[in-house]
Amino acid sequence: MKTPIAALALGCAALVIACTASAQEEVRQSKTEFYARTSGGDKECGLEFSIVYRDGANGHRDTAAVRGLLTWLENNGNVGVALLIKGLDFDPVTKKPTPFSVFRGFVVIDGKSIPPTTVVKSSQPTDFNAVYRFDAQVDIF
Hints:
The chain contains 2 helices and 9 strands; from the N terminus they run αβββββββββα. By secondary structure, the chain is mainly beta. It has one domain. Strands 1, 2, 3, 4, 5, 8 and 9 form a 7-stranded antiparallel sheet that branches. The chain has a two-stranded antiparallel sheet with strand order 6-7. β4 and β5 form a beta hairpin.
């Protein structure tokens, strides 16, 4: 299936408006950026997000963060959607980050959760990595 990169970019731009990332507890800082690459290998565009928050799960309200990517990739007319989520806890004294395991991730658009089609083994065992098949991508667009 041939998909022009312009349509791909339009879908990503629509997602900037429709999609937000969320984390538990008190959000301290949140940032979402759009990016597009149209030359040099695979064509892709997507969102990069980060959320820094106070995690009350352990009773100490320590700082933690979630970072991730939601990426549309195009290669030889084939389109794919990938979701990557990383979690970090920060030591309250040294501020050194330590990865924590992210077991589940999904996209929420207009209040509707869209779970990934397939969870993929990540190069980092604590990261969550998944892909969406084309039917789910239509919802995400």
